[in-house]
Amino acid sequence: MTSTTVSQPLRTIREVWESLPEGTRAQIIENQLTMSPPLSNIHQKTLNRINVSIFLHVEKHLLGEVRIAPFGVYLDDENVFEPDIVFVTNDNLHRIKEDGLHGSPDMVIEILSSSNARVDENQKKKVYERHGVKEYWIVDPKTKEVNGFFLEDDRYGSPVKFDGKISSIVLDFDFEF
């Protein structure tokens, strides 16, 4: 007689996400699984320019840690993001675990792609605000238009707008790309 093992079917979006092969570009946004295509050349180029500037500044002044996608940010069971750039202050380094960041980063930068612009500008912005991300920057790599949102009284105010520049309060640093 042979025995058969029956496994439980996956029941939650989080369980489905966790079962995906490593390297699959996917996020959970408001309990919806969202797949992402590979990044475009201009997206990668902009990501590299911004990341190098931030990384060198953070390392020089020992401000905390910078991570780039793919790096999991576990905000809650219904929101697991892979932002393009994440900054975590020294006070919050305990949130970084082997599998990603558990809790809110201090700053997030998202670089728009044609496939993700509406999600970054609306859904993810609301989730970042709700979870207390102090600064949220949205960068259009084609036009270099930048919209920055700063958390005040648990809400993001009107965006500050720049062209080819980010002026971070959290980092006390202005840089161009």
Describe it.
This is Uma2 family endonuclease. It comes from Membranihabitans marinus. GO terms for molecular function: endonuclease activity. The chain is α+β, with helices and mostly antiparallel strands and 177 residues long. It has one domain: tt1808, chain A. It contains 3 helices and 15 strands. The chain has helices at 13-19, 41-61, 117-130; strands spanning 26-29, 32-35, 64-68, 73-76, 79-81, 85-89, 96-97, 100-102, 107-111, 135-139, 145-152, 155-156, 160-163, 165-168, 173-176. Strands 3, 6, 9, 10, 11, 12 and 13 form a 7-stranded mixed beta sheet that branches. The longest helix is centred in the first third of the chain and has 21 residues, at 41-61. The protein is globular, with a radius of gyration of 17 Å.
